[in-house]
TrEMBL record, chains A, B:
Residues 408-499 form the DUF5605 domain. Residues 4-69 form the DUF5060 domain. Pfam families: Apiosidase (PF13204), DUF5060 (PF16586), DUF5605 (PF18310). Residues 98-355 form the Apiosidase-like catalytic domain. PANTHER family: DUF4038 DOMAIN-CONTAINING PROTEIN, LMO1036 PROTEIN. This is Endoglucanase. InterPro entries: Apiosidase-like_cat_dom (IPR025277), DUF5060 (IPR032260), DUF5605 (IPR041239), GH (IPR017853), Ig-like_fold (IPR013783).
Amino acid sequence: MTTTPVWDIFELRLSGPATGNPYLDVTLEAHFTQRGRSIRVPGFYDGEGQYVLRFMPDTQGEWHYKTRSSLAALEGKVGSFTATTPLKGAHGPVRVANQFHFAHADGKPFLCFGTTCYAWTHQPLELQAQTLNTLTTAGFNKIRMGVFPKDYPFNTNEPLHDVFDVGADGKRDFDRPNPVAFRHFESQIGKLRDLGIEADIIIFHPYDRWGYCDMSAEQDNRYVAYLAARLAAYRNVWWSLANEYDFLLDTKPMERWDRFFHILGENDPYGHLRSIHNGDVRMNYDHTKPWVTHVCIQNWDVKKTPEWRDAYGKPVVNDEPEYEGNIFSAWGNISAQELTHRFWITALRGGYAGHGETFEHPEDIIWWAKGGELYGDAWKRIKFLRELLEQDVKAGLTPLGGTTSWPWSRMSAAEDGDVRYIYFGEHQPAQWTTGLPLDDGDYDVDLIDTWAMTIEPAQRIAPAIPHPTRHGAVVRGGKADAAFGVRLPGRPHLALRVRRRR
Amino acid sequence: MTTTPVWDIFELRLSGPATGNPYLDVTLEAHFTQRGRSIRVPGFYDGEGQYVLRFMPDTQGEWHYKTRSSLAALEGKVGSFTATTPLKGAHGPVRVANQFHFAHADGKPFLCFGTTCYAWTHQPLELQAQTLNTLTTAGFNKIRMGVFPKDYPFNTNEPLHDVFDVGADGKRDFDRPNPVAFRHFESQIGKLRDLGIEADIIIFHPYDRWGYCDMSAEQDNRYVAYLAARLAAYRNVWWSLANEYDFLLDTKPMERWDRFFHILGENDPYGHLRSIHNGDVRMNYDHTKPWVTHVCIQNWDVKKTPEWRDAYGKPVVNDEPEYEGNIFSAWGNISAQELTHRFWITALRGGYAGHGETFEHPEDIIWWAKGGELYGDAWKRIKFLRELLEQDVKAGLTPLGGTTSWPWSRMSAAEDGDVRYIYFGEHQPAQWTTGLPLDDGDYDVDLIDTWAMTIEPAQRIAPAIPHPTRHGAVVRGGKADAAFGVRLPGRPHLALRVRRRR
């Protein structure tokens, strides 16, 4: 019997007629059943008379399927396969876990450290290979990437493939997806999966000269359903309805965005993560809507991360806290120090920041859109942060205090179980006590230089005992607020890690 | 005839009985008249049978006065003096000018660059002399200073003088101000005046172990009126009702703060600037109230400066955007780079930031409270900024765009007449065009390194012409948004100055 590892893809490829327009005319689905469970899986037309069903089993054992189709040739096909133990390194799709965090289906925590290469799959193949090679060691576990090519400053080249067919009249036919383009796209998703990288697939974006922006509502809806049918069986898929959806509101009003979410819900049997990304900071989508799994925003003002957690009650992924680089766009020219700083602030306020790199390049090969090589200095520090947190963070980081609580409105600190981190950022105290353990137990306290990427034991000292202060009739302080303090070198961008010895 | 320069102090000292408690029992005022004008000037008791009236003339020529008093001995005294041309360097009290800015009475722009030494007049005299010596060259033109001594971390020493008399029972008598303390305090205000420094006098604060916090409403009101009578004739006086008034709301509810403003209005004939300073960032006083002349706040989040301008419609003085230092308090341990950065952001968003320095010191002699020496690195850069702006800014800086406008929500820029400044801060573009002149006229464009304090001509290049972008149906860009661009070195904390050649 055919076998497929759990969280891998069982593919059923059926032959049928290639006449007419099967994309419009033919319905195809299958029900995959195991004991009492039945999962409806939509199929799709892959060109040249090929009709495809893809299924990602999530439990081991025998699965049976039966197709249904508007075409007699595809109707009532039955079969079965056995789902086997997952491949090494396969932990299943990423889900929301512990309200504000993520974990793989097998429970492995997923601390999100994403980067952005919007149009990397539309570049020459050599460049795509280089991008994958860079990703192998860069330390990112998520990448934002568009289905459509990009027409934007520094992005003027034609894509490798047309996403929809170009007819004899030279016009794009949005009723005919180009199977070659999609086969390429999904093969790159597969390569990312094999690198352990989540593909945050951007379905729409406004930066277009090919007409993809101007598809009709019906065409948009059909395209979203097609993506779900085609790609949902890849365990590393995340759905991002748009980059900067708000710049498309003139042609795609809000109810259509809501509907796109519904279509994904109807056609993605696995419930992959679903988000939508704003352009203007005032135009966050209402992430409280139940079909949005997590908050995906762009906002440089990362100290607000706890506000977004509070506002939406979901994981916060700030995918554009501005990018490291030197291009003329203000969102793409912050220093490596600043981006590293924003990653630490975001993480220690209970969110997840996203990376991008936008350095001028003689041939406009800029990581944020085309991939290639990384030229900056932030990515190494971000990798260092990821590795540091992955040592100890299990449930996810909960920030100490909110945006107005003392002193964590000014600095950033978070904890998870027995581990606590304090990030001083632009602050440079020569000693520190607040937030350290209340008892003098068995703790390791380490001093972390977030830029030099060093970790060394912090020098313990007596806790600071401030003179009491009187606020009206209320006397405050005059006692230490932790059992001990640490001596610090008095320079910015340092952090502390406090762990109970295990 | 007696002469007094305009904006200097004409003092009338009358002798009377020292029996009873003249502070409570005797009323004294005078009307100073010149042609049709009549100005009511309250007097005060200076101890030892001395009753004093102080008047600051604002116009030249002959002034006549006549006293009124509840004491026959002080009633109906008449006299006159001639107000002569102002002393060199005297420009009169600072007023609000151009809605969001300040100017002296003679029209000289006042670009506010303040520092903070809360309790410097309560320190040993040698230390006070050192503070004045430091201020001579430090480049600040305003200082925040309290009438009362301070009881706070790093501030545990007894003050030089009791502000109110200590009776035979060892208790402070809040019905008897100590003339020695006030004579000393005003002599220091006079020395600041002679250095060209405004004294931002903090009337109340919560950090107290002497009982000043617990005076009755009547005692508070009388004390405020006494300060006005005693100090208002100093041209460099500003009134700051409190440092961190909100921490005193439990004993002094809001209506009392409003009343203090009224009392100042009733007893300060010159209408010196009046403000009140919050502690908690959520507790800004309602600065739209008509008796508040300008916004005085503490808030580290300086990119919000345009929001405060919009909210209150008055000059914004952010006197505590955190301090340079290394003490354990989060408000007092940011780096010099960060404080310099916050000054530039505040200035180029149309506000005025305040300086403070809080470095650990073996004897707790910390500038922010006690004065002494400056140990940090920000003050030099702040002085550089002041000198730079004073070259060209006349009416005051108007920010380009608000907190949400592109790209000035991310970077900071402002203009005044023919001069415009752009501060890139954490941004490091390799070239820049936006905000530069629309015509290719006769401009000097200078590149400023805000940390190295260098000014050099910027290298002009062709303007950036970005590829057009399509937002839905709207095509944007594709053309330069200024007549020329500049090449930049691609590192953070740089600024541009653009001036039309005159």
